[in-house]
Write a structure and sequence with these properties.
The protein is mainly alpha-helical. The protein contains five helices and no strands. 48% of the residues lie in helices and 0% in strands. It starts with 6 loop residues before the first helix and ends in a 27-residue tail after the last helix.
């Protein structure tokens, strides 16, 4: 739901979702926690087990309505905003401290979870698996598809 989106997502939306202009995220954990709340708000209720990840990964193909509401753009926003977490952690550098390692581990778990959900969406919505031209019949006759005008 829109009301659960992190402030950074709203900031980006207000600017027209520019690919090259990312919201300033200086503290990955401060962004990651609200992002996870938002991500969980989009999940079927059976997946929510506690505060963090991993969430339940039982394969039930009929409960993905919240995620499908936004269509392809909704999925795009999830992926792009997840990438901000990864980028903000990367900007910490090669810090070997335990906090940075924990952030990297949590972010990796989010990537795994989002990937799993995308696989579930493919199974639950077969129409999303079709390429744009897959419903077109191929032209095997060698003749033009359009009829010639005879005026």
């Amino acid at each position: 739901p829109r009301k659960c989106r992190p402030h950074e997502v709203l900031w980006w939306n207000k600017r027209g979702k520019p690919a090259k202009t990312l919201p300033p995220i200086s503290q990955p954990k401060v962004y990651m926690d609200p992002w996870l709340v938002w991500w969980k708000s989009l999940q079927p209720s059976y997946r929510i087990k506690g505060d963090g990840v991993p969430m339940d990964r039982a394969e039930k193909h009929d409960e993905w309505d919240q995620l499908l509401v936004g269509g392809v753009n909704g999925v795009y926003i999830i992926i792009i905003t997840l990438s901000w977490i990864l980028r903000s952690i990367q900007n910490l550098g090669d810090s070997g401290d335990s906090i940075a390692k924990k952030l990297r581990d949590e972010a990796q778990e989010l990537v795994v979870d989002v990937s799993w959900v995308l696989d579930q969406l493919k199974v639950a919505t077969p129409q999303l698996n079709e390429s744009p031209g897959s419903k077109c019949q191929s032209n095997t006759t060698g003749r033009p598809r359009k009829r010639a005008r005879h005026d």
